Amino acid sequence: MKRWNKSYTGFGLFCLSFFICFAGSAMAADPKYPTKPIEFIITMAPGGTMDISCRALCEAASKHLQQPIIPINKPGAGGALGASIIKDSKPDGYRIGILSRPAAFVIPFAEKVSYDPLTDFTPIIYFGDYVDILMVRGDSPWKTWKELIEWAKAHPGEIKVGMPGSKYMQVQGIALGQIELRENVKFTYIPFKGASETLTALLGGNIDVYSTTVDASTVDYLKIGKVRLLAFSGKIKLPGYESIPSTDELYGISVCNFIGVVGPKGLPSYVAKTLIDAFQRGIKDPSFVDVMQKMYTPIVGMTGEEVGKYIAKTYKEQKEIIERLKKEEAKK
Amino acid sequence: MDIFSGILTGFSIILNPLNLLYCFIGVLIGTLIGVLPGIGPTGAIAILLPGTIGLGPVPAIIMLAGIYYGAMYGGSTTSILLNIPGEAASVVTCLDGYAMARQGRAGPALGISAFGSFIGGTLSVLGLMLAAPPLAKLALNFGPPEYFTLVCLGLSILIYLAAGSIPKALIMASVGITAGCVGLDQLSEVPRFTFGIMEFLDGIGVVPVAMGLFGIAEVLMNIEQEVRSKDIYRTKLKGLLPTVKDWVQSAWPIVRGTVVGFFLGILPGGGPMISSFVSYGIEKRCSKHPENFGKGAIEGVAGPETANNSATGGSFIPLLTLGIPPNAVMAILLGALMIHGITPGPLLIQRNPDIFWGVIASMYIGNVMLLVLNLPLIGLWVKVLEIPYKILFPLILLFCLIGAYSLNWSTVDVYFMIIAGIFGYLMRKFGFEGAPLILGFILGPILELSLRQSLLMSRGSFQIFIKRPFCIISIIIIIFLIISNFIPGLRRKRFKLVEEAEEIA
To answer: Strand A95-99 relative to strand A121-128: parallel, antiparallel, unpaired?
Structure first.
């Protein structure tokens, strides 16, 4: 031990301090996130139900992050444009957005899209559901859904159904197509550019049935009797209108539902966790709950992997339904 | 609540200093947004919307509405000074407004534009106040067949948009209609002319194309001229305000512009853009000297500028009485109302009279504020023309590039603008005009969609166009317009138009 001298001690101390440093940082392995504002892509035009609920969500979730979430509208192709923008973004957590239900479950079967709803996204949260309805004018002769179907059977092709978009690109169109087959009736579908054009057409007598989602002014129209609710086309009913049947009750057919936030695939788990946490707390925020209530959009709270499974399941279901629908319609 | 007590309520709301402040902020932002090419009221309102959540619904809506009609005042500035349409509704102002500027008459052009906007804006609020509910019913009765015949009428006015050769104008309109087809087919949602590129799926934006075709092309033409000859010839400035003669010439155009703008603003899908085109066409048709149009006829500025402001008042009608937004800006305002807990719809006037009457009163005051804001600014704007062109044109290009990007935060719009600019330059060199192209571009898709919707409604029968009153009237007007071109008395005027144009060309 005569060889033990200062250099060994120095080296030993150096190694010791080296390891102490690492020991400390081993505790904080994940980098800080977020360090700058997060972009949130809203894939529909400003002013609609999705837009307003997303803006409220971004506000509410930002409170639980050190950085704001900035909503940006990128409408187009029913949400497919926004979806492909999200898919192509860097998976660093600074750009996330909405995967709309048509973009996830209908459009991929109608035409070529640049994304795969099953593999190109990291699901974050499924936060809301739409209330889907089928309504007619208050002064029209059909008081119930059954009456409408009876009339449609006697007058094939005369019932004009209006939607913002075409039949095979809209979730409601798929459901109505199935009902047509089941009841052996034929509707005429008239696409419109947007919800307000379709509502105008209904009120002006240019279409007979409007297949849409509920919002506050729809409820006003219901209250004053200018429109009549014939059926709910999804599984969810509007409070106060429970006596109106849903197509799920009548036929087991319903419009698939989903308002969800995703990021590009490959989001690091600490990023996903932080986002999920912020959004989960955001949906409990009273101002968000208030907005969703005003929009008649029930809140859902599914997060993370569960959402991924839901998307996969619904995608598979819709694929079968649409393929069957196309085959049956081709036969006719 | 009857009108008298309603308007008193409205004024008591707006005369609150806080609401006055927000009204002023709104119209100021609106004017700036309108002046800057590219970002329009839609984008600005969408961005400012979250900021208004803290305010009550009344100040929020007052401010956002102020941005909307304020932008219609400011939009004409760059159109007149630099031939750059600030937004789609200012395209038509470029035609005669810029010509007036080149003759040294930028001041009167800006002046009559401000006054016309004021008159159109104020009178349309009057209409909104007095007759909103029955007019709303009018909007409802407008279905696809009515749209189709209206658009046909609009396209027949196209002939009057062309200052020069008619065949060339028709070619341009065809190019416009074809370009309008790019994107998803509106009925079957099949992609057309998209070449597999995702960004084409949504079609080509009209604002980037307008900015390119008029603004960028103008810059390119001017650069060429500067390169060839030493300096761009700038006429000396002749006065800052419209003369008595200008007023006399503009009086009827302003009246007609108000009416046209108001009614077209009520219709969903109508709005300021279409109103300005239709007003231009009407003015040219009604003018005793149609050959002056395109060369600095003040009627060509007065009419459209009045119409696009009048359309803003009209567009509030379906929103406030039916909860149906007739255009994109109104759709965002609808969202804004909903966020604040107000449900726009048939019950709005009864349930929230403060919103309805407050907005109306604020629009009166806002229009006055805008006039006061814009008139003195004319002197400032006109100075822009005195900047040496070699400093000005890079700035113009910069603003256009930023403006095109700011529309949708997308570089694709910038590319479209640049391509449109190069195309516009080549177009000018060969004597083609941009206005018919823009008209075809806007109206083509509406024409196709409404025709197909109408035929779906009628299960394939064309009789639907004869069974509806508005359609029959429109068809008769169209036939009259076509035939009148062949009647000797009126024929001379037409040929005179074309002759004069060939002389100059």
So the answer is: unpaired
Best probe of the A interface among B48, B67, B315, B324, by most A CBs < 10 A, is B324
Beta strands in chain A (DSSP E): 38-42, 69-73, 95-99, 121-128, 132-137, 160-164, 188-192, 209-213, 227-232, 259-264, 299-303
Closest residue to A216, CB basis, from B42, B191, B343: B343
**Six token digits for residue A126:** 């499924």
Kindly determine whether residue B345 and residue A197, on different chains, have CB atoms separated by under 8 Å: no
String of DSSP letters for A300-312: EEEEHHHHHHHHH
| B128 contacts B313 by C-beta, under 8 angstroms | yes
> Is B24 contained in some domain?
yes
Per-residue CA distances from B236 to B221, B223, B229 (Å): 21, 20, 19
Q: Which residues of B touch A51 (CB under 8 A)?
A: 335
In a domain? residue B237: no
B460 has a pLDDT exceeding 90: no
Rounded Cα gap, residues B155 and B157, in angstroms:
5
Nearest to A172 by CA among A157, A187, A153, A155: A187
Reference B120, options B284, B253, B298, B310; nearest CA is: B310
Interface test with B, best of A190, A226, A290 (most B CBs within 10 A): A190
DSSP A5: -
The residue written with tokens 């696009």 in the block is B308
Number of residues assigned to chain B: 505
CB–CB of A177/A325 below 8 Å?
yes
Alpha helices, H only, B287-388: 299-322, 328-339, 348-351, 353-384
Considering CB atoms only, which of B188, B322, B333 is closest to A166? B188
Task: Please return the burial class of A280, using the count of CB atoms within 10 Å of its CB with bins 0-12, 13-18 and 19+.
Answer: middle
Contact A105, A315 (CB under 8 A): yes
Cβ–Cβ of A206/B144 closer than 8 Å? yes
Cα(A175)–Cα(A183) distance, integer angstroms: 12
- Residues B505 and B500: their CA atoms lie apart, in Å, by 9
Separation between Cα atoms, residue B390 and residue B410, nearest integer Å = 28
User: Can you tell me the distance from the alpha carbon of B266 to that of B325, in angstroms, rounded to the nearest whole number?
Assistant: 9
Task: Give the CA distances from residue A152 to residues A132, A183, A188, A192, B327, in Å, rounded to whole numbers and listed in that order.
Answer: 21, 10, 10, 22, 34
Please indicate whether, in this complex, the C-beta atoms of A206 and B143 are within 8 angstroms of each other: yes
Domain span at residue B202 reads: 3-231+243-504
Residues B189, A157: C-beta atoms closer than 8 Å: no
How far is A12 from A7, CA to CA, in rounded Å? 8
- Partners of A133 in the beta sheet? A212, A232
Domain count of chain B?
1
Give the pTM: 0.82
Helical residues (DSSP H) of B323-352, grouped into ranges? 328-339, 348-351
* Structure-token pair, residue B355: 């919103």
**Residue A81 Cα, gap to closest chain B Cα (Å):** 7
ipTM of the complex: 0.81
pLDDT in tens, B393-424: 888 888 888 888 887 777 888 999 999 999 99
Nearest to B332 by CA among B34, B135, B48, B142: B48
Beta A299-303 vs B191-192: how paired, if at all? unpaired
A-chain residues within 8 Å CB-CB of B326?
196
DSSP string, B174-204: HHHHHHHT-EE-TTT--EES-TT-GGGGG--
Map out the domains of chain A with their CATH numbers: 38-129+258-324 (3.40.190.150), 132-255 (3.40.190.10)
Q: Kindly indicate the confidence band of residue A110, based on its pLDDT and cuts at 50, 70 and 90.
A: confident
**Cα separation, B273 vs B289, whole angstroms:** 25
pLDDT tens-digit series, residues B362-375: 999 999 999 998 88
Report the gap between the CA of B21 and the closest CA in chain A (Å).
25
Name the helix (H) or strand (E) containing A7.
Answer: helix A6-27
